[in-house]
Amino acid sequence: MYLELRFHGRGGEGAVTAATILARAAVLEGKYAQAIPNFSAERRGAPVEVYSRISDKPIEKHSQVRNPDAIVVLDYELIKMVNVLSGLKPNGIAIVNSPVNEPLDNVKTYCVDATKIAKSHNLVISGWPTVNTAILGAVSKALGIVSIDSISNAIAEQFSSPNIAKANAAAALDAYKMTSLCGDSY
Amino acid sequence: MALETVKKAIPLSTNHAIANAVKDLDVDVISAYPITPQTTVVEKISEFIAKGELDAEYIHVESEHSALSAAISASLTGARAFTATASQGFALMHEMLHIASGLRAPLVMSVAMRSLSAPISIWNDQSDLFNARDSGWIILFAHTAQEAYDTIIQAYKIAEDQNVLLPVMVGYDGYVMSHTIEPVITESREKVIKFAPKKQYPYKLDPDKPVSIGAITPPEYYYEFKYQQVNAVNNSLPTIEKVDEEFGKTFGRSYGLMECYMCEDAEALIMTNASYASTLKAFLPDIRKEGIKVGLLRVRLYRPFPLQKFIEYTSDKKTVLVIDRAISYGAPFQGPLANEISGAIVREGLKLNLISVVAGIGQRTVEYEDFLALARLAYEGKKHKETIFYGVRE
Q: Are the C-beta atoms of B370 and B390 separated by less than 8 Å?
């Protein structure tokens, strides 16, 4: 098993933390993982990419991911600004925080309204719903590689405040339950 | 790593792995200028101190020049001292690099290797470190976050060895490694300190016994001081090798001075370091499937250069292709490492074809197809007089 992922988010939205928690969860299961921020001249709110690798063998490769097996979109508006499907492998999948439940062009797409879920758990910072933990529930469901329990344990390790960890883990679990293939086309 | 051991690993970026090593080594003084191009190494260390996990003096200074000055001074009082840097900050330290080695300050510095301005680039190459190669420091490169953690621990044992007493820098690729999070096994402070106990600096600054050090030295003596440094750097090699072996016995991980990977049946070698070495390791099995018999020669210890290892690993090879991620403008070969390898070939009378390649400048990404093309070039073994600036648009 060897998987490469690309997260699409906005600067300050927590995509790096999402990839870090995913890596932590994979490591908790005895797998190998990387989380790789792609740095540019950072601005809050600007589109950013973060990569991740998960494998059952040690990962030697240190470079950006060009041909991901899956893309994860934290902010639905980004699909109008960025070609989120760029380089996606032929059988690759998309996991999208989507308010509209529609698949992306010709791609097997999983949808979840992570924004709504984040709000329902009061995961809002400075007016921004923080969807980075909810989306991991969707990633767990869609990939079937890293269990929701491991995501939950990794969230507990990531946040020093137990209450914050609890709310984030609950959001991830809700998202896990609500994630499904988008629309009717599949 | 076996499955049981990876479970004990925690996900850390190389920066945070290094901060953890500093904590586990119970370093006494950390000095840093905490603004970009500084890294999250010192940010994490300040967190450890704030949480009481490390009892150390943390000095916020006003520039990188002062950061290294403070670390040198602390080191000379007998404290275990550390600083971290990258890019322009490293360049600003340059004067103090020579003072650290000249004063034989056994401090350790991590370098998230990055490009230099102008024009401004925040991205990775190795221009900063290769600019400092002749500053009299011991220089090691790490190719994984784990190796960076382990090498910082080794670095203090090397630096503080009474037969060495030299500053050590540990280089790793900025961004590509510095911010990539991967599993790292950290060790207990007890075990780390037992492996690398703090040594009394033999000539330490002491207010009760005041001395001047590094005072003006006339032509009658200066040369001898520098020659002592020549010997000190050269003579550190067996200690560096021994420390790595002991580290292996204690912690179950060792790296050698230079690594030859998929080497035995290779006809040509690609010589590189840090993240290019780890990435090439991942690509080599597929490159071999194309019938291209190349291996990887990974530079781990750079100063002193382990020439005997180089001779040993290349003895039955036809070609070595050296990838430099820094430029020596106007030099015969314009990659600094390639220039040195050409010196080694002449010195030893080796029948080895050298191909000099510059790549990855300013983090221009080198992918599988690029490594495949370079492997083909090495395997063909043709003579290339000029340095190849791979992937540049002319």
A: yes
Model confidence pLDDT, tens digit, residues A81-117: 999 999 999 999 999 999 998 999 899 999 999 999 9
Verify whether the Cβ–Cβ distance A59 to B182 is below 8 Å.
yes
Measured between CA atoms, the residue of chain B closest to residue A36 is B180
Interchain proximity A30–B278, CB inside 8 Å: no
ipTM of the predicted structure? 0.87
Q: Which chain B residues are closer than 8 Å to A151 by Cβ?
A: none
Closest of B345, B371, B354, B285 to residue B318, by C-alpha: B354
Residue A184: the pLDDT is 53
Kindly determine whether residue A58 and residue B1, on different chains, have CB atoms separated by under 8 Å. yes
Contact A61 B123 (CB under 8 A): no
Q: Closest partner residue to A62 among B9, B177, B367, by Cβ?
A: B177
Interface size A-B, in CB pairs within 8 Å, comes to 74
Neighbouring C-beta atoms of residue B245, cutoff 10 Å = 12
List, by residue range, all CATH 3.40.50.920 domains of chain B: 258-389
- Mutation site, B172, B180, B275, interface A, largest A CB count within 10 A: B180
CA dist B338 → B31, B270, B344, B366, B387 (Å)? 34, 11, 10, 19, 9
| CATH T-level topology, domain A2-180 | Pyruvate-ferredoxin Oxidoreductase; domain 3 (3.40.920)
| Architecture of the structural domain at B3-251 | 3-Layer(aba) Sandwich (3.40)
The answer to whether A178 and A117 have CB atoms below 8 angstroms apart is yes
What type of residue is A77? E
What backbone torsions phi and psi does residue A65 show, to the nearest 5 degrees?
Answer: -95, 120
Question: Quick one: how many helices (H) and strands (E) in chain A?
Answer: 6, 9
Architecture of domain B258-389: 3-Layer(aba) Sandwich (3.40)
CB contact under 8 A, B181 and A32: no
Q: Which residue of A has its CA nearest to B144?
A: A60
- Answer whether A63 sits within 8 Å of B279, measured CB to CB: yes
From the CB of residue A128, how many other CB atoms can be counted at a distance below 10 Å? 17
Instruction: Kindly state the DSSP code that residue B315 receives in the 8-state scheme.
Output: T
The model's pLDDT over B331-348, given as tens digits with 9 standing for 90+, comes to: 999 999 999 999 999 999
Length of chain A: 186
Looking at the complex, report in whole angstroms how far the Cα of residue B257 sits from the nearest Cα belonging to chain A: 19
Measure in Å the smallest separation between the Cα of A150 and chain B Cα atoms: 12
**Rounded to an integer, what distance in angstroms lies between the CA atom of residue A66 and that of residue A88?**
8
**Per-domain residue ranges of chain A:** 2-180
Say which of B6, B179, B366 has its CB closest to residue A30: B6
Domain with CATH 3.40.50.970 in chain B: 3-251
> What separation in angstroms does the CA of B107 have from each of A20, A118, B236, B257, B258?
32, 47, 15, 20, 23
